Amino acid sequence: MSKPSAVGNVMIEAARRAGRSLARDFGEVEYLQVSSKGPGDFVSNADHRAEDVIFEYLTKARPGYSFLMEEKGFVEGSDKTNRFIIDPLDGTLNFLHGQPHYAVSIGLERDGKLVAGVVFDVSRNEIFWAETGRGAWLGQRKLRVAARKKLDRSVLATGAPWFGKSTETHMQFSRELSTIAPTIAGIRRNGSAALDLAWVACGRFDGFWERGLNQWDIAAGIVLVREAGGVVTEIDGKDVLQTGSIIAANPDLHPLIESPIRNAGKRKPDN
Ligand code: IPD
Ligand code: CA
Ligand code: CA
């Protein structure tokens, strides 16, 4: 069994601390559903609190490291080679609606390469962690991507665009969905990209694609999938952290998902 490195342990502890803060706040959220004001402001505060907990802990444990955080943005440290990439609460809409599917995501980039990732599913108390060369783990269990080779047996995860996104973004997603859905066993939109990737790493999903994510949504999950033997690429062959358009799957299924998604995404709607 592999153990996390010193910095891996520090990332796990930071995720656990943020998870405790989120779990306390999640307990309040269900009561706020019925209040006239709704839980919006409360959840936004919960998100910031969790990020503060992570930032405070990690700056003490690793002074000088740089940070990219969803809420505070980029904080440059004296050490420019190490950068934590943090989403304190991935799955905000689930959290806001009292749905217990959300996570803390902490990635570490060193010399421009992703080297470690922790995704903490707070409700299930599942810590997924991975480090380059140490494998991907869920507790004592070494993770492997699913072995399925056939699309028609596969369950894929995705993310659908929402209010405020352009008509073309919605059309593009519809084209992708109508191309891939008839070829697979099932599709899920669970609402946390970090957990979608963690679930690809542990074989609960056979693959995942989504466009336009942010670095903090996927940094940790990318390390998990790669260390579990999966393949992660950018949908159109660009830099996945830059565009956030991602396909992750086992090496057999990856090309079978990539090609139809890429082509459907490019196709212009018929006039
Ligand atoms: C979101 C989740 C969701 C994905 C969105 C992300 P947030 O992150 O990962 O699954 O579809 O694109 O923005 O806002 O909950 O941190
Ligand atoms: Ca997110
Ligand atoms: Ca978030």
Give a quick precis of the structure.
With 271 residues, the chain is an alpha+beta fold. The chain folds into 2 domains: 6-142, 2-Layer Sandwich (Fructose-1,6-Bisphosphatase, Chain A, domain 1); 151-266, D-Maltodextrin-Binding Protein, domain 2 (3-Layer(aba) Sandwich).
The strand line-up of the biggest sheet is 2-1-3-4-5-6-7-8
What is Rg?
18 Å
State which percent range the strand residues make up: 25-35%
Bound molecules: D-MYO-inositol-1-phosphate, calcium ion
The dominant shape is: globular
Question: How many structural domains can be distinguished in the coordinates?
Answer: 2
Q: Please give the number of β-strands.
A: 13
Helical residue percent?
25-40%
Report on the biggest sheet: 8 strands, mixed
What class, by secondary structure content? alpha+beta
CATH class (first level) name of the largest domain:
Alpha Beta
The CATH topology name of the largest domain reads Fructose-1,6-Bisphosphatase, Chain A, domain 1
| CATH architecture annotation name of the largest domain | 2-Layer Sandwich
Spatial gap, N to C terminus: 57 Å
**Mean pLDDT value:** 95
Unreliable stretches covering 5 or more consecutive residues: none
Describe the structure.
The protein is an alpha+beta fold and 271 residues long. The protein is built from 8 helices and 13 strands. Helix 1 (6-32) runs antiparallel to helix 2. The longest helix is centred in the N-terminal third of the chain and has 27 residues, at 6-32.
Keywords:
2 domains; Fructose-1,6-Bisphosphatase, Chain A, domain 1; 271 residues; alpha+beta; D-Maltodextrin-Binding Protein, domain 2; single chain; 25% strand; globular; eight-stranded mixed beta sheet; 8 helices; five-stranded mixed beta sheet; binds calcium ion; binds D-MYO-inositol-1-phosphate
